[in-house]
């Protein structure tokens, strides 16, 4: 390797580690491929996004990557999840895959404000953290029902409504332990199933926000992609799909287009241990390869193309980038967890988010009401017989809290 080649390689690796993304021209013009490691446009702006410190502008869309990795989660990257926040105060989750809940908590948003979840299909890496967000949210001060949208399947048993019914049945024990002990209004699950084969069909329309679904080609019948439009801005999210005619037709000119960009087949073999035939099938026929991703983006020309759904490391990103650039030379970001996109009609700003690991729930946004003890499931006499009450320890705790807050609660076990 020549000294010039070595220097070029070191620069690429340094940028991959330091910045984690590449970017095209802010006005959407193609051809700019140099890396930007600093995105502030003025000295008064922050290079890093600090959750809960910046309001979304009234004409702005903020998109936060909460899960960008492969089906198997790892500390660096959770499975698929994207938060969209709009200037009118509305917030939406697109997919809620395994491992993303802690990243969502790191955004420091009251749970009552995150009450709308859309998932593109029923793979665990796209809806696996729904149970913890749903039921865990009841002790994180969510007092508003959680609304879920998902596609039908080729049969009722393969659709979202059936899956959610079984999920509620599976967590009967969990529900039984909470619903009579805490204000459980946030435990209500409202499920909206829509036809997977609807083409650009409106599935949500409230407060000036329109969300449409288009069919996707992935796994089985019953996978979809989403398009959100608000205030002249357009967000497109593939969830999982191989290239398809519906995406190409209906996402053209999106302000931000987030589409899967799976690992190249060669890396699936060398890094993940796939057999070559497995790698080819999974990497090009079940998912979208970097070259396919680039071709799709060249046909749809978003202001910013965002590739996700691969392990984004110092040694994988350059190869993914090289392959994307075979077929696409426009504005591009290769996503990492905690990457933040501020989108307006004039600019798209890309930053990484600071992460506060010592997160506590935001205060409730409504006054809590007493739990409905009628929902409580009683212990059996056998279990009660095993409890050691320690009244000399527990009663002073009750006395302290009752005196502090003017209550008259009494211990269950005496």
Identify the notable features of this structure and list them briefly.
about 25% helix, alpha/beta, 13 helices, elongated, 7-stranded mixed β-sheet, about 20% strand, disordered N terminus, 9-stranded mixed β-sheet, about 425 residues
Outline the structure in words.
27% of the residues lie in helices and 21% in strands. It has 414 residues and is of the alpha/beta class.
Number of strands: 16
Low-confidence stretches at least 5 residues in length (pLDDT < 50)?
Answer: 1-44
Helix content: 25-40%
- Count of helical segments? 13
Order of helices and strands: HEEEEHEHHEHHEEEEEHEHHHEHEEEHH
Write down the Rg. Answer: 24 Å
Terminal CA distance: 78 Å
Summarize the biggest pleated sheet. Answer: 9 strands, mixed
In short:
With 414 residues, the protein is α/β, with parallel strands linked by helices. It has helices at 3-18, 101-105, 124-127, 130-136, 160-170, 172-178, 245-250, 265-270, 276-286, 290-300, 317-324, 381-385, 391-405; strands spanning 48-49, 61-67, 81-86, 91-96, 116-118, 146-151, 189-194, 201-206, 209-215, 224-230, 233-237, 256-260, 304-308, 332-334, 339-343, 348-353.
Draw up the topology in text.
Layout: H1 3-18, E1 48-49, E2 61-67, E3 81-86, E4 91-96, H2 101-105, E5 116-118, H3 124-127, H4 130-136, E6 146-151, H5 160-170, H6 172-178, E7 189-194, E8 201-206, E9 209-215, E10 224-230, E11 233-237, H7 245-250, E12 256-260, H8 265-270, H9 276-286, H10 290-300, E13 304-308, H11 317-324, E14 332-334, E15 339-343, E16 348-353, H12 381-385, H13 391-405
Parallel strand pairs: 1-16, 4-5, 5-6, 6-7, 11-12, 12-13, 13-14
Antiparallel strand pairs: 2-3, 2-15, 3-4, 8-9, 9-10, 10-11, 15-16
